[in-house]
Amino acid sequence: MPLPGRFLTSALLRREGELFLFDCGEGTQVSLRKLNLKWKKISVIFISHTHADHVTGLPGILMLSSQVERDEPLYIIGPPNIREYVESSRKALDMYINYEIIVKEITEPGIVYEGDGYSVKAFSLRHTKPCFGYSLIEDPRPGVFNPEAARNLSVPIEPLWARLQSGENVTLENGNIVTPEMVLGAKRKGRKFSFVTDTKYFGGIKDNVKDSDLFICEGMFRDELKESAAEKKHMTATQAATIAKEAGGVKKMGLIHYSPRYTEYDLRFLVKEARIIFPDTFLSRDGQAINIPFED
User: Fold this and answer.
1) Is residue 179 within 8 Å of 141, Cβ to Cβ?
2) Is residue 53 among the annotated active site residues?
3) Domain range holding 86?
4) How far apart are CA 228 and CA 221, in angstroms?
5) Which of 53, 211, 280, 286 is catalytic?
6) 1, 102: one domain
7) CB count, 10 Å around CB of 70?
8) Is residue 22 part of a domain?
9) Is the pLDDT score of 33 beyond 90?
């Protein structure tokens, strides 16, 4: 439930000026306004499941987006019933919508959305109804450009160096073809963001969040309530940390989706338990911004 100073679950990812929203709990549009973010830049809304605390902010976002000029469609991707929820909300509230909404229901795990230089993969979680986690994975980046190699091959700086760096072959005046591989180092890893909430603990999650630069994961309960967590198909902070550790390559994990039984004071015990297993754990907070840098 929403609490004073603690909204329901939602995470916004910004990449190259494009915005992606993961879940849309009650009050999400308030958070967006506080952060002064341009919500019309939201390309896709990914919904984990259709429990109320993860979708009740969606009607407000849809109506809010009609208050600005929007040329691009808004994609809403989620489990079965998300289309019914969107359509019934539009009808019941008599929404004025001046842009295209494209709803895609996930029928099986895999790539559910692709853009320029990235893809988004959905993977199954284990909750009381169909639920998915998501990973946004960037394509590998070109290797570091070697100016000395380009000079040795007599490649003029303008405009051919830039074309080689962007991955194009170039033809020199003498007819020789120079490929990017001849002047670039090994390809570099792109970034990866993973989002997991509302699921019981099981080993398969780690395979999907492996190598995440930022892993946002539910840590609803302290370890003393792990039996209750399993019954309700949720996780403890310790279990979230175990996933991060066993996955391998996870750089940082932010806990999310705390039980309302925990006060602000109590939350320190959640992160303390998690850090015993995965030290690079933090408590995610409303309005918090985390930079995800490239690897060198």
Assistant:
1) no
2) yes
3) 1-109
4) 9
5) 53
6) yes
7) 17
8) yes
9) no
